[in-house]
Amino acid sequence: MDWYAFLCRHMVTPIWAKKERSPYLDHCRRLDRFPGRSMEDLRAIQWEKLRELIQHAWEKVEYYREKWRSIGFRPEDLKSKEDLLRLPLLTKEDIRAHKPRMIAHGIPTEKLIPKKTSGSTGVSLEFFVDDDSIQWKRGCELHFNQWTGWKIGEKVAAIWGNPTHRANWRAVIRNALLERYDYLNTLKMSEEQMLAFYQRQLRRKPKLLFGHAHSIYLFANFLRQKKLEPFRPKGILSTCMVLHDFERRRIEETFGCRVFNRYGCEEVSLISCECEAHQGLHLNLNTLAVEFLRDGRPAKPGEPGALVVTDLTNYGMPFIRYKVGDVGIPSGKECPCGRPLPLMESLEGRVADYVVTPEGNLISGISLTENFAMELPEIKQVQIVQEKPDVLVFRVVRSETFSAGSEEKIRNLALQRFGKTMRFECEYVEHIPQEANGKYRFCISKVKNPFA
After folding, report:
1. Per-residue burial over 94-133, b = 16 or more CB atoms within 10 Å of its CB, e = otherwise
2. CA-CA distance, 207 to 357, in Å (whole number)?
3. pTM reported for the whole predicted model
4. pLDDT at 166 (0 to 100)
5. Calculated CA dihedral for residues 177, 181, 185, 186, nearest 10 degrees
6. Which DSSP letter does residue 9 get?
7. I need a surface site. Which of 122, 155, 261, 304 has the fewest CB within 10 A?
């Protein structure tokens, strides 16, 4: 039994939070009590938070005040969700161009924490989050982590890019005593590194495995190929990338526990998380307002839409109707778990992860890579790149069983999915390169689509 986990949960963590004057544990406990509320209650609280944020942005943020004045909008005009649609969307380009004017007047500089995205679209994004918002985000993360069965204070194994637990001696001590993470750096996933990570976890016995979806899948494959007996966490948190069904199956078969899918981004933190029912991802309406838009209108349940998010906690540099750059499918169903949080059916990937056919049809990159993985086991990895409406490039990593007939299978599969008007070519590579943040992208389209 891990006695220190009990000590950490009931003594070390509360004392540390008190020493830092951090309310994140209080926020976590408050969220733990939310299942007793109705969805109507939570939506009413969310709406009031939204109105307060809009009023604050009007009074304190030059960028929003000028934008809204130009369209004849004032905070008192916000009476329904339809009124919210009047407000302009916020893009990454807007933030880069107007960052100084987006910072709220009257917020002490020491309360603003600089943040930076990893730049999955090619250019990183720099912004600020106020300290109160950071504490809410920490509380939310702890709350949702516990849905896996993990408890505060228990050890975590993380497969992640650019870990910061060794940034300085304070970070080392904090991690050893409080956070208890051990990392496999996704930017250095050699067989030697994976074996060393595996051996450490056999000794540590972590209760949670956390990381990039595809990187966890690659690690599971490594264990199976080497015939290594896996360590047994209580649950697995998959995040930062779309989780394919074939990846979920392989990971769950390998580790003998369920995978909990999660979605978020650096700009607004955790957006949605899967519960033990595994029938969609619960939207985090505790700290966010989430919209799904298609051609500028709200997407219907079951219809893909571009994700637009308002962070209800960041008053230092508000993100109001921020276009994240991803596509998701809203659900009209209630979850059997009973939690009063609406569902997202699935995350469909980035806006640029949709292939557009010459006829104008949209095909999700998720379905394509899933299809290739299921139909072509002789392929280790595939990346689909679309530069023009009628041309695709398949970057293929071949396995030992790849043969001359495999390319014919690719040809037939492409013909079935895209028809005769789509041309394609195969480019054989040793590996699919990771992005700077350690993530993989398996479908990249540079052709405009309705979500752009």
Report:
1. bbeebeeebbbeebeeeebeebebbebeeeebebbbbebb
2. 45
3. 0.82
4. 67
5. -160
6. I
7. 122
